[in-house]
Write a structure and sequence with these properties.
single chain; 161 residues; mainly alpha; two-stranded parallel sheet; 2% strand; binds protoporphyrin IX containing FE
Amino acid sequence: MSETQGYSRAQIALHWGIFALMGVSFFSHEGMKEAFRAALKGEEAGGAAAVVHRLVGIAILILALARIVLRLRRGAPALPPGGHPLLSLAAKVTHLALYALMIAIPASGMAAWLGASRDIGEVHETLFGLLFVLVGLHVVAALFHQFVLKDGLMQRMKRPG
Ligand code: HEM
Ligand code: HEM
């Protein structure tokens, strides 16, 4: 994988854009659950929140695919030097898992909805739980870099390089 001086403007916009859209998906999930329960019972499955949940989720899927293509083509900056090899490995594994979840979560949501499958719905929910934990770790790591290591890592996701 190629290494660059920094993330591009598009990579940074996609990182924060997807973060914001994930928030919208999260805050619309109650309406989606209600609509899903109704649909499984063969009832009318309306509600604006449910529509927002599906449309925003599909937008995330498309943007995440674009982000992965960019990442494969352009690469990413190397991790700051001097970090413990195990922590560097943890960062790489977490980033990889976050990319995978950005695809698997909306894909499983669509499969649950289109296939009216309660089981796939469970998978969708479990994957979201995993994302929640990993994003929590990711944010703690970012704060650790910002306030303890003070190595300017956060700047890399703010200013294109
Ligand atoms: C990255 C995008 C998405 C996120 C972050 C997300 C997140 C969530 C969350 C947090 C829940 C509730 C989980 C719970 O209560 O434990 C949920 C439920 C659900 N979502 Fe999504 N979702 C996304 C995309 C989609 C898409 C694209 C669709 C369909 C087109 C979809 C369909 C559903 C369905 C059917 C449920 C109800 C599942 C059930 O009750 O078993 N989601 N989603
Ligand atoms: C407040 C929330 C967040 C903060 C403060 C944050 C911060 C950062 C920072 C500073 C980097 C750069 C790491 C480096 O230069 O090596 C980064 C990379 C990354 N972030 Fe976040 N992030 C947040 C939310 C998210 C969310 C919600 C996701 C996924 C859904 C995500 C996925 C990623 C991925 C996959 C990378 C690796 C990019 C690459 O090297 O290809 N982040 N984040």
